[in-house]
Every structure is written in C-alpha cells, then in structure tokens.
Amino acid sequence: MLRVLVTRRLVDTFSLIVDEETCLIHMRVEQRQSAGGRAIRVATQYTDYRPVEGVLIPHTITLSIDGKATQQTKIARIVANSEKDGSLFRRPDPEAAAASASGSKSTDASEPVGADKR
C-alpha cells in the first residue's frame, strides 16, 4: 500500500491509502475537529470494487470515527451515463407552480395555518 498526502486549498489535508498494484483507493484518512473542538480521526474505507462500464467502482463504503465504524453504505447497482430527459433539470415554470400550489391548498389563505375555526 502507498500513502498519498493530498492538500486542498493549501489548508485541508488528508491521506489516501492506495493499493500499489491496482492503484485502487483503499481508504481516505483525515483529522477533523469535533463539535467540542476535539481532534477526531475519520477514515473512509472503500471495498467491493466491481466493474461498471469498464471502470472499477467501490460498492461498499464504510465510515469510521476514531476506529469505530459508524456508517456503512452498500450500493446494489450503479448505472453509468444513463440517458435523462433534459426537462428533468430545468426550473419549473413559476406560473404553473403557483397555479398548482393554489389548486392543492385546502385552507383559506386569509387564516393562519392551524387556526381554530370554532
């Protein structure tokens, strides 16, 4: 394994643990400050590499804080470069959104939400 020190914006640093033969990233390790100001070690481990469109991508990601696993993400399936309709990424028409919102409201706009109608 190789350890690569990465520096971003001349301030943030973290280490990548890389397999020397495959060049796959095994782990990312960094020091962070907790809410109380204590230094904590955060390690993100990448495993279960599988090919997706010819590229090996990790399908299990485990996050550990101070050596204790706190979160694990297991990815069942990855679809690379799937075709999406461009309208999916456009802003909605403000007039259509306002009409839709006013049509779905069942309360009178002049009364505050949760007003007692006794």
Tell me what you see in this structure.
The protein is mainly beta and 118 residues long. It has a domain at 2-78. It has one helix at residues 94-104, and strands spanning 2-8, 12-18, 25-33, 39-52, 55-65, 68-74. A hairpin with a 5-residue loop joins strand 3 (25-33) and strand 4. The longest helix has 11 residues, at 94-104.
Look at the structure and give the mean pLDDT. Answer: 85
For the largest beta-sheet, the strand count, sense and barrel status come to:
6 strands, antiparallel
% residues in beta strands: over 45%
Radius of gyration: 24 Å
Would you list the SSEs in sequence order as H and E? Answer: EEEEEEH
Instruction: Give the strand tally.
Output: 6
Helix content: under 10%
Give the CA-CA distance, first to last residue.
Answer: 72 Å
Give me the side-by-side strand order of the main sheet: 1-2-3-4-5-6
Count of DSSP H/I helices:
1
Anisotropy-based shape: extended
Q: Structural class, judged by helices and strands?
A: mainly beta
Which segments are poorly predicted (pLDDT under 50) over 5 or more consecutive residues? Answer: none
